Amino acid sequence: MGKINGCLKCIFIFFNVLYMILGCALIYGAVRATALTLQMSSFGMPGLGWTWVFAIGVLGVSSFGIYAACSEKALALKIFAGFMGVGMIIMMIFGIIVAVQRNQLKTIFYSASSELVEPYMKEQSLRDMLEAIQQTGQCCGIVSANDWGEEIPNSCDCSSSNLGYGSCKSRPQGIRGPSKIFAQSCGDFIFSYVDIVFKILLGFFFGFAVTALLGLLITIFMIHQVKRNDTGGGIAMKGY
């Protein structure tokens, strides 16, 4: 008979197997995202270093959790409980950092000036990407139509034939291009999608923090069962 309740051990191992699969999926996602990160690095997008650390950590800790449950050793369970406690704190810190960065990015998007955007607009890859966004989001410029300089592209054209949910305004004086352009800037449109990513990350990190707390409580209960079994066995042997 094992030292740990069989049903509890099966549930514990099952969830660790799920996190092993998640760790493998995160590693695969990090590999696929590396190329995109290299392309977007010129816009200040952070690297994937922490993503790799997190993915490998999830895979390693969940594997160790399976070993600790199967071996029923108090030391291994204590180490795993330590990982859960540290992981819970780290996930809370990451969640707070993401929340702070979201607010900072929101401030940048809504308070940026055309002078700040001007160096980026010199890159042809960004101009092509922005034109595609303008056609899809019915917007013009990152901050305003003035981002395009002396000539506004046709992707900003706000004619009645391609007007969906956007509103129109006259183009600024002294600039060539369509007579009517989209009134909304693409900064608002871009941030609406970026904000979705931030909300997913917030749910991800705080969800992991709650899961780590539950894992810590279950592990502590398993350690108690192992110690109680070992103490009972020791007394029985001494009496014999």
UniProtKB/TrEMBL annotation:
Pfam families cross-referenced by the UniProt entry: Tetraspanin
Keyword Plastid set for record: no
Topological relation to the membrane, as annotated: Multi-pass membrane protein
Localization, UniProt: Membrane
Entries under SUPFAM superfamilies matching the protein: Tetraspanin (SSF48652)
InterPro entries reported in the protein's UniProt record: Tetraspanin/Peripherin, Tetraspanin_EC2_sf
UniProt key word Transmembrane: yes
Domain of life of the organism encoding this protein: Eukaryota
Membrane-spanning segments: 12-31, 51-70, 77-100, 200-223
GO cellular component: membrane
Assigned keywords, A-Z: Membrane, Transmembrane, Transmembrane helix
Protein's name in the database: Tetraspanin-5
Organism: Oreochromis niloticus
